[in-house]
Amino acid sequence: MREKLRLDQGQIDRGRKAAARIAADVNRELEKKTTVAVERTVLRLLGIDGVDTEGVPLPNVVVDHLLEQGRLSAGAASWVVNAALHENITPQQVAERVAAGSLSLTEIPQVEWASLLREGERLAAQGLERIAANRREREEQIRRLGEGRKPYLYVIVATGDIYEDIIQGKSAARQGADIVAVIRSTGQSLIDYVPYGATREGFGGTYATQENFRLMRQGLDEVGEEVGRYIRLCNYCSGLCMPEIAAMGAMERLDVMLNDALYGILFRDINMQRTLIDQAFSRLINGYAGIMINTGEDNYLTTADAVEAAHTVLASQFINEQFALLAGLPPEQMGLGHAFEINPELEDGFLLELAQAQLSRQIFPEAPLKYMPPTKHMTGNIFKGHVQDAMFNLVSILTGQGVQLLGMMTEAMHTPHIHDRKLAIENAQYIFNNARHLGEEIQFVSGGRVEARAREVLDRAVGMLEEVERIGLFTALERGMLADVKRSPTGGKGLSGVLEKDENYYNPLEAELKRRVGLDPREEGSVHGRGLPTR
């Protein structure tokens, strides 16, 4: 099915080149900046965990301490590693002393810079080895147990109680799910810290914490042994703590992360500079951890018309692809998103959906595309909803999608019950089995409705990308060119957490990650700063 539509390869190349220039321009503009979330992530990967006596996460305590001293722009790692060497203690003990008020990082004499670099590299390698070990463990379990066939059946749990989520996740795996996604508690993306420990209260979902990740991973490993296949775990790597959650997921062997370059800007009003800096570091981590990312282009069609705005989905897929490549994340880990959201009352709407899905499949042949179900036009008529989901499943198997987020016939009514999920899985399994190779038997009419629609969407997407390249991504977002949502480069939440790096900035994790994923860490300040700022 990959070459079924006769598309203009030259046009595809134009779109990809424009997207590459858009992403590169943004990276050049933002590479001299860091964020509080990036610095907290570095501390977590250096081994700092836990909370102080008031329940504040220790990475926040240390970063806030340096912010108050006006010294975070040198990078949190430089101060913490310096203190660890001078005091002959671990980074964890450094953080605990800062929290207790018995240590001021900016008052400790500077050790020899070469020694600091060696220790930073050692600690970075130590932190990343835990992630590498998890990746090896995933690969070994898949080799030993096997896994479901693509499209992977992806379902959600959203009880608010991690222990109930585990019960529901195991139930879903027994019913046939391949990926279990734990929906995050409403509003967590807008808090600038990560809650600590296991949680049993959440609204519309469960808090994303490292302990919750560990518990859910343990539960899915148990049921994986029972059902005889590896069950993937998904959570949300977005919001004001995007890179921190990427690190915690990598340390607890999550397999899939919702990780979009633009979603937080458009749908959570998070400052665009903050989001774009954070997504770069989070994708470095996800790429190294072997985590599949899911992008959020499907959300565009909840605020804009699915027929009229189809080209914005494709344009965003091109942009997300290029940001991911710049972070060293390979195509086989790019779950680029799109959705079955055309009004079911539209004549030949199925053909338009088929065109969009096949278009994405051909342009991104190696990506495990994530296909989202109908939501906007679900009415509460569960019988019609079940048919809509069946047609959605048929498009997926026809076009070779990678990840199928299953539609629920009760979508417009309530959070799905266990029996709703079972019916959704049976629906998909029936259609996938009966139409497994149907796509190999189908040819599209040259110049017919499906092909004409795909060409139209591609043409408009390329035109849009070249316009965004001309005016810049920040201006495009300001004008509302994506999802009909307008955002300001200096507006939104989290801008105060963006800092200019000073000439001595040091981040051993960034340097080591770039080396390991095959990128050239040429930003001198992030690798070999010249020492801590003069006190």
Automatic annotation (TrEMBL):
Name any one Pfam family assigned in the record: Lys-AminoMut_A
The D-Lysine 5,6-aminomutase alpha subunit domain sits at 5-509
Q: Which Gene3D superfamilies match?
A: D-Lysine 5,6-aminomutase alpha subunit (3.20.20.440)
- What's the protein name? Beta-lysine 5,6-aminomutase alpha subunit
Question: What Gene Ontology terms describe what this protein does at the molecular function level?
Answer: catalytic activity; cobalamin binding
